[in-house]
Amino acid sequence: MTQTQTKTWDVAVVGAGMAGMAASLFAAERGLSCIQIGNGGGLLFASGLLDLLAVHPVAARRVWDNPFEALAMIRRDQPDHPLARVDDASMRAAFQSFTSALGDAGMPFAPLGDRNASVLTSLGTPKPTYGVPRTMAAGVDALAGRPPCLLLDFRGLREFSARQIVATIGDTWPGLRMARVEFPGAEATSELYAAHMAVALESGEFRERTLARVRPLLGDARVVGFPAVLGLARSAVVHAAFEEGLGVPVFEIPTMPTSVPGLRLNAALEQAVVTRGVHRMLRVDVASTSFDETAVLTLDGVPGGQRVSARTVVLATGRFSGRGLSAGQQGVTETLLGLPVQQPASRDAWHSRDFLDPAGHAINRAGLATDDDFRPLDATGRPAWPGLYAVGSILAGQDWMREKCGSGLALGTARVAVDRIARQLRAPSGVGEAG
Amino acid sequence: MSASFLRMAFLVSLGLCALGLLWRVSAWLRVRIGSDARDIRFHQRLFAAVGGTFAALFSRRIFGLVKAKVLDVLLQRRLFNGCWLRWLGHLLIVYGFLLLLVMHALGRLVTAKLYPDYASTHDPWLLLRNVFGAAVVLGIVMVAAGRRFRPTSTPRPRRLGDKVFAALLAVVLVSGFLLEATKVASPKAFYRMANEYIGSTDPEELLPLRLAWATDFGVAFPDLQGTPDPDKLAEGRELHHDACASCHSPPGSSAFVSYPISRALAPIAEPLDGVDADTWLLYLHLAACFLGLILLPFTRFIHVLADPVSLLANGAASSGPLSPAGRANRRALAIDACVDCRLCDDRCSVAPIARSLGNPALLPSHKLLATHAVATNPRWLDRQAGHARRIAEGAVLCTTCGRCTDRCPVGIDLADLWVAGRADLARAGQPSPAQWVRERSALDWDEALAARGAVQDPIGPLSSNRETYSACVQCQTCTNVCPVVAHGGEEPGPVDLTPQKVMNLLRLGMVDLAIGSSMVWDCATCYQCQEHCPEGIRVTDVMLELRELGYRRLGDTRERRQPE
Amino acid sequence: METQVLIIGGGATGTALARDLALRGVDCVLVERDDINAGASGRNHGLLHSGARYVSNDHEAAVECRTEGEILKRVAFRSIQDTGGYFVAVAGDDEKYVADFPGHCQRSGIQAKVIDVAEAREREPAISEHAIAVYEVPDASVDPFRLSLESMAQARSLGARLMRRTRVVGFDREGPRIVAVRVLDTVSGAEQRIHAAQVVNAAGAWAREVALLAGAPVEMLYSKGTLLITHGRMAQHVINRLRKPGNADILMPGGTVSVLGTTSLRVDSLEDIHPTVAEVDRIVDEAAPMLPGLRTMRFIRAYAGVRPLLGSPAGSDGRNVSRGFALYDHEDQGLANFATLTGGKLTTCRLMAERAADLVCRRLGVSSPCLTAIEVIPAAPECEWTVPGRAPREWMRAHGLDDPMLCECEMVSGSVVDLLYASLREAGDMPTLTDIGLRSRVGKGACQGAFCAVRTVAHLYQRGDFQARRGLDEITDFFRERWRGQHPVLWGEQLAQAELMEALHCGLFGEELRGADGVEALRSAVSGEGTP
Fold it and tell me: Which of these, C159, C183, C160, C157, lies nearest to C170 by C-alpha position?
């Protein structure tokens, strides 16, 4: 009998995206025994940036400088918004803890404060965000201060054009220059892939060859921007080597998914949760569940139909991309437990006719309704099971893509849910009913 | 026939045998198997062989040599590990025969020098001769029975030379026992001996001795019937003790094979004497030996030389890799060293596939012959008609797991042979699919298939099922984590398609363009793409399926276009 | 600007007319308010009717389809794939119709061969197991974009001129003659006058508006039709429903996808035409009995077009109104040099053009004969890229180091984009991403442009074709255009794809925040403080 079959876990987290990873991390830090089940993969689409909250109200496209002030506004305007149930202290603690764990795992972040940062994207647009990986931090300063800056791109990295960025924002940044570099060893190819470049740059010899091609282009630039290819597992080392090799601050610019920072985030989080003792079962699906004294999840894809028993379950299965929600022609369902999904009355109302409609698309706000402790409600409006929690983008009432609150949503709700779980597990049974 | 004639016959046979051995040994230095053997000259191989031997003898490797000699050659440890019953049988044959050779055939040269009172009819020599002879017979019976009852795959045809040699061996053994039996029972032999050592052939005079010999030694005197006179018998025995006992032991207890035969022959002893049966049997015995000696180098039984060489070479091998010349020598040696014991077939990890595909060319025993044939006779493959592709299939489906090599009792490096053999197959026009796919670009293959007017037969459960790739969101994760795209495939330069492009070609219904692509064949099946895909698409499994499809469809197309 | 004939409308009809006139040596200018095939010509099945669909209720149309189909298969062979078609009836369909079908076909001269149902299902596994009868007919598929583009390319090579994004805003009349047509360049805002001896109104559904402007109104009905595109091709043949023409009767093979449709809904206005959720669901429901796989099929987009129909509003949905075409000479309305050519279907575009050209030439005194049924339309390099599968093969044949693949879904490379861009520039236009999309497969695959638009824009900046913020504008326009066909089919896997698209373009790139308050403010607030 393996460990998973006989043990009853404190927490079973279903989902391996941002929220699932955060929940596992926080649970382990709290000393709770935690097992994580899911299909890895959604995290690969991350850009590496951690958005707390930047736009509210969405329809007015009001961008906030201070995310906590924006949070306060949300609490006032939309008390059913998931973020309204996350207090500032929990949010700060969540981000601190998360970025600290990432730092330990080789992906350090710039220090967090009270301000959002503006990050230049590969399309030349400024993106408001909160948590910035250290490899991208110098770019925030550069975008703000507009010093003489050199942007580099590599022939073959098709989705990134420094010329495009310079053309798009050059009128407000006179000192912005671009140059194209031939990536060493890629002379015979027409297509380059960011992950391969990042791995190649982890070799010192390769870095030297690249730096040798970049140095002559420096000119009077006081900061240099690259597409995000500076190392995969050892980005801190590669980044530092580039800064040393060029003698000026260096920053990465986030690229289209699947991006290297997304791969880094995925790998770093995997390492972080595993080193904290979370037991992981990837590439398995939950075939069925039963809820009684404990929750029992029967797994598919494991020989023998393995069963996992847990005192609490955190549902962090994501939305449509993550398969936490499934949309048929008739409506949206929640795929694992069939929980009722708050959604527009008919499919007509799901999407606006304008892709960039400032108000966003109503379907994005569909999801699971919960109580203040993030326990999803059943058809009667009560928590479906005392130990069942739902966190992250599966929750109703938020539009993370428009509000720029993806990580805030994932980390904040995971933090609060894990706190409630810890409280629930320490208290004798019966307390779990209370909000 | 005179002794000098016999001696000459022996020397001639020995000489011919030596020449034959020389020729066969030279083949070990001549036969070229594998592409790395192509350019190595004879003298290089000679130096490698000789030099290697000397180097081994005059270095620490001599210990390995000794160890190999003792364990592998003398005790046949590897065969023991393979199957102890076969080991036992073989040991009986080998030692029985060897000891017969040394003690009996070379009695005058060897045994007599060690034991001055050697007399072949005296114990323990008489006993030993029977023991050794019986051991050989028992061993042969065991081995033959084992072959009969062991479940094996298709047997390969025995060459004529092997059959003849085996027959000669049988003749040697049978004639030997018959000869001894005849001699035991032969009165004529008695009289001959009496004449030589006593000086009389008068039956009356020799009666006491005759009685003793009839009773104790089983000579079938026709005139001595009934119970002998005890006084005469005692006298005869005394006489025997003085005159004969130093050279003759009673065969009844020692010659446990020959004596019962002589008892059976006793009734016809006189007619046998009449035709000088013992003399003819002796000539037969010797003739068989000499012929066997001449024939030895040209049959499978060359293994008596090749196997020890092979095992010793293994034992004396240094820790580093062999030089190309050394490797070439070993491969050529391997062909002669193989005794067709089929232990390799038993261990082969793809043997079950050989059965299900109905293609015995996958099995090591068959591959060995094919490897030799392809290397030495370039036209052999062409003459195999429809079998060329099956032979190539046999070479390709080998996983080079090395289990055959581990098992081979004569120390052949089979895994190396298979790899070398593939190069020779490629030269003979049958490279592995991963190589012949590269003969054309993916586009050319697509056009060739279109020209053939290929009917859209079902592709495969994965690649023809829309659900396999309908969830693809074009994120390029598969390509990003692919080490083959990162480092290039077998040919220098970038791959012609990435995993994402292959999946897209499937979705576009352009399978024929994908199956001839080098990406499909360069795929390392590391499963990174499948493990990372956020949508759970079975990218690697699709690649493998496309290979299977490519092998069949492109293979058919290719064969149709092969020049005659 | 002066010309002999001004053609209004760049759809299948207008471009065919330009070709016809050019072949007769008549100088012409074609003005199109948007781009080639912007109307119904670019929003149809792409079906080259054998005519079998109309045998029961419109014999004339059926014959017309048959003869014109044969001509087009000869002169426009590159745009046409002779896929063959099946007519399939399933359990519950009108058996009398099935029984009468062969007779009707025969009367119209259309070959309809009985096919054993099991055999048909072997060749086309998508057909339902409840099929009760199958007939094979000589349907074919036509790429309407390639057809119009090639016609126009030939016309231009013979001297015709094309003015895209040019809208007619008024006519200058003197008595019975139109002396000039006022047109507006919608990109630059400049107006100009075109002096033409003859004017032909071939504006499809917009012909009514144009005719009104000219003071010669025509009666017209608008019938909206919606079609869906599947992810991957479902069938090799055209699959028709063997029943009285109704909704969702036809599944077309469209190269690497299938096109399913259509509906017929009376509409009163040409504004704001887009496919709706209700229409999409109805199409799937109606077609599913014949093709059960549609229930689980992923659709990558939907589109809607408006059919111009003539005649009195008899049927409520316009389907039973004749699809035969009409050529008005407007003489009874006091105009001598104006004609309106409208109605019809894609299959008969050449015939319509011939009739109009005959009229116009008679009025001009030109006696050259019509050559469009004889002359094969020549190939033009910039017209080759709408056909799926062309670009991947070409890329695999040869691609240089500076020729990366930009659209992965449909495997379109940079050199194709460059070629199209160059050909449009050469015609005097400012090419947009949407223009390139129309003339190739870019953005037509599974991702609907989410990834390839970014790569294509980056490429165009690299080539120096795009300057300043043009790329951002183009991406926004491109997605807005693509989105029109997205939202009603967004469920299942396609919704996941759309979610990813929004996560990328809004979540990461923040395209919806352009010009928003606070985006600029954010920058200045951070300036000076920054992170250490």
Answer: C183
CB contact under 8 A, C411 and B471: no
Burial of A287 (0-12, 13-18, 19+ CB in 10 A): middle
Specify the residue for token string 């044959």. Answer: B93
**What would the two tokens of residue C243 be?**
């029943």
ipTM reported for the complex, 2 dp: 0.94
How many interface pairs between A and C have CB atoms less than 8 angstroms apart? Answer: 219
Contacts of B6 (CB under 8 A, 6+ apart): B286
Q: Where are the domains of chain B?
A: 184-282, 338-431, 459-561
What separation in angstroms does the CA of C506 have from each of A8, A71, A257, A304, B476?
42, 20, 13, 44, 20
Residue from B103, B105, B93, B94 nearest B13 by CA = B105
Chain-chain contact of B486 with A321 (C-beta, under 8 angstroms): no
Q: Is the pTM of this model over 0.90?
A: no
Beta-carbon contacts of residue C343 (< 8 Å; ≥ 6 apart): C308, C309, C310, C322, C323, C324, C325, C326
Q: Domain B459-561: which topology?
A: Fumarate Reductase Iron-sulfur Protein; Chain B, domain 2 (1.10.1060)
For chain A, the domains span: 3-103+264-433, 122-253
Whether C389 contacts C255, CB under 8 Å: yes
- Which ranges of C158-233 would DSSP assign to H, the alpha helix? 207-213
What integer best gives the mean pLDDT of chain B?
Answer: 85
Query: What pLDDT was estimated at residue B156?
Result: 59
Identity of the residue in A41, A193, A199 whose CB atom sits nearest the CB atom of B534: A41
**Measured over all CA atoms, what is the biggest interatomic distance in chain B, rounded to whole angstroms?**
115
Min Cα–Cα distance to chain C from A255, Å: 9
CA Rg value for chain A = 23
**pLDDT tens-digit readout, C191-213:** 999 999 999 999 999 999 999 99
Give CATH for domain A122-253: 3.40.50.1860
pLDDT grade for A148, boundaries at 50, 70 and 90:
very high
Distances (CA, A) of C71 to C15, C74, C375: 17, 5, 10
Give the model confidence (pLDDT) of B492-550 as tens digits: 777 889 999 999 998 888 888 898 898 999 999 999 999 999 888 999 999 999 998 88
Residue type, A293: E
**Predicted pLDDT at C316:** 42
At the topology level, CATH places domain A3-103+264-433 in FAD/NAD(P)-binding domain (3.50.50)
Cβ–Cβ gap B466/C496 under 8 Å: no
